[in-house]
Specification:
The protein is built from 9 helices and 14 strands. By secondary structure, the protein is α/β, with parallel strands linked by helices. It has 2 domains: 3-126 and 283-300, 3-Layer(aba) Sandwich (Rossmann fold); 130-277, Dihydrodipicolinate Reductase, domain 2. The longest helix is centred in the C-terminal third of the chain and has 18 residues, at 306-323. It is globular, with a radius of gyration of 20 Å. This is Oxidoreductase domain protein.
């Protein structure tokens, strides 16, 4: 039987994900099927379905629940709806790949995780960066001792977004702001490389709509390491990351969260660059991983676990508390 995918939300990120999903080998063989799309707008759902040849379309999110043979849903709705949409699917036995941030706070994530585990339904946060080959290679190099003991992580993510108060980025009611939208990536990298910190300090600046337009974080670790992280919606930054060790460094080229190249300097060796070309946006790797997990009967990923998602959301909550970032 094919793995049948449903898509919840028909916005920009859903289009990118679907275009990558359609490159999976299982699509050509019939082992993976793009089966349904649901949107809050019947018109958008119809347009989306027509564009990608999707057989089932719904103008309400719960329309997906009428399909008894739906296997997994990709949740690509606004941040504030992730929790509700994921629970809707999980409570009906449908596996979920949920866009980041997984939910609005750790209490919501914990409820999602508890339900998924109690019902034995697959659930994973769509932290696509964890599956990007360049980041996987960087982790392998670190684990091999190529740069010695890691001492510092520096990462930034910034772009100058058009000021559209009614749209998600600058709209507090939709969970907008720099930290949850893009600051999650530097924080994710620090967690991936160094684990949970001993201390986290954060500061933010706020715009006229009340969202954090910039957010900076400093994390310290029990063994003396440090992470310097920042995000901004009002300036273009390099959006690169450097992982320093006591015997070299690894630079993740821009944009680091879906990097196509890394440079490594190990000891006295000359720096060398590794490239990871691809024809996709980068979402195909996480999509294939979900398919593999479902084929193997797993209920959570062994690579990006639900405990990892809980830990990351705890750090986001801590950063929000430190910086004074609040939502209704």
């Amino acid at each position: 039987m094919p793995i049948r995918w449903g898509i919840l939300g028909a916005g920009r990120i859903a289009h990118k994900f679907i275009q990558d999903l359609l490159t999976l080998p299982g699509i050509a063989t019939g082992e993976v099927e793009l089966y349904a799309v649901a949107s809050s707008s019947a018109e958008r759902a119809a347009e989306f379905a027509a564009q990608y040849g999707i057989p089932h379309q719904f103008g309400t999110y719960d329309g997906l629940l009428t399909l008894p043979d739906l296997d997994v849903v990709y949740v690509a709705t606004p941040h504030v709806q992730h929790h509700e949409n994921a629970l809707m699917c999980l409570n009906n036995g449908i596996a979920v790949l949920g866009e980041k941030p997984f939910a609005m706070n750790v209490a919501q994530v914990r409820e999602m995780v508890d339900i998924a585990r109690s019902r034995k339904v697959f659930l994973m946060e769509a932290l696509w960066s964890r599956f990007i080959p360049g980041i996987v290679a960087a982790l392998e190099l670190i684990e091999s001792g190529a740069i010695g003991k890691v001492t510092m992580v520096k990462a930034d993510f910034g772009f100058k977004a058009p000021f559209l108060p009614e749209r998600r980025l600058f709209n507090k009611a939709l969970g907008g702001g720099a930290l949850l939208d893009i600051g999650i990536y530097p924080l994710f990298l620090a967690y991936l490389v160094l684990g949970k910190p001993a201390t986290l300090k954060a500061s933010a600046t706020f715009g006229t709509t009340g969202v954090d337009e910039q957010c900076g974080m400093v994390l310290t670790y029990p063994d003396g390491q440090i992470a310097l992280l920042d995000s901004t919606l009002i300036a273009q930054t390099e959006t690169a990351a450097v992982i320093y060790g006591d015997n070299g460094y690894i630079k993740l080229h821009s944009r680091f969260q879906d990097t196509r190249g890394i440079t490594i300097k190990s000891g006295d060796e000359e720096p060398r660059t590794l490239t990871f070309d691809r024809d996709t946006f980068g979402y195909a790797y996480e999509a294939q991983h979900v398919v593999d997990c479902l084929r193997d009967g797993l209920t959570e990923s062994p690579i990006w676990s639900l405990d990892d998602s809980l830990n990351l959301m705890e750090l986001l909550d801590a950063a929000r508390a430190e910086a004074g970032i609040t939502y209704e």
